[in-house]
Amino acid sequence: MIRRVLIGAALLAATTAAFAVGPGDPKPAEDVDGKYFDADGVPTFNIAEDGTVDWYTYSGFRRYHAECHVCHGPDGMGSSYAPALAESVANIDYYTFYEVVVNGKQAVGTGQANQVMPAFGTNPNVMCYLDDIYVYLRARAQGGLPRGRPAKKEAKPDGFVEAENACMGG
């Protein structure tokens, strides 16, 4: 029985590792009302040569520091309590990130189920801005976005305001 559990855990780990592919080329391929997407249709960042960031990256900075930094440390750098998400996002794809945030994560192989990260799937302060948080962390991981609040940002797009109002019930 223990052997089957260990084999099952090893297969699950190998399968998870096989699908946990990095996020790919972050270069924007499409701009939809100020929201950028890479060639695979995944939300991405846009940082101009003068350091101006797109609104979604800026929003992600704000939302990350409102909801995530308590555990994961400022600027996605990690803490003694939780891993550096700037490093994690460099090694997993958008869909894996999304799944972990929505459903949480449990420690496997500890002899009991331990919640490592709580699920945020019902928290509108996270879910309404999940793409923004991802884009910010992706910029930290792949785009050379320095630590701290971005000094320059694009204007808030109308599409952002509409989506925020719809999601937050405004």
From TrEMBL:
Family annotation (Gene3D superfamilies): Cytochrome c-like domain
Signal peptide: 1-20
InterPro entries noted in UniProt: C-typ_cyt_methanol_metab-rel (IPR022411), Cyt_c-like_dom (IPR009056), Cyt_c-like_dom_sf (IPR036909)
Keyword line: Heme, Iron, Metal-binding, Signal
A GO term, aspect molecular function: heme binding
Domain Cytochrome c as annotated: residue spans: 36-141
NCBIfam families referenced in this protein's UniProt entry, alphabetically: 4cys_cytochr
Name this polypeptide is given: C-type cytochrome, methanol metabolism-related
Keyword Transport appears in the UniProt entry: no
Pfam entry (one): Cytochrome_CBB3
Domain of life: Bacteria
Cross-referenced PROSITE patterns: CYTC
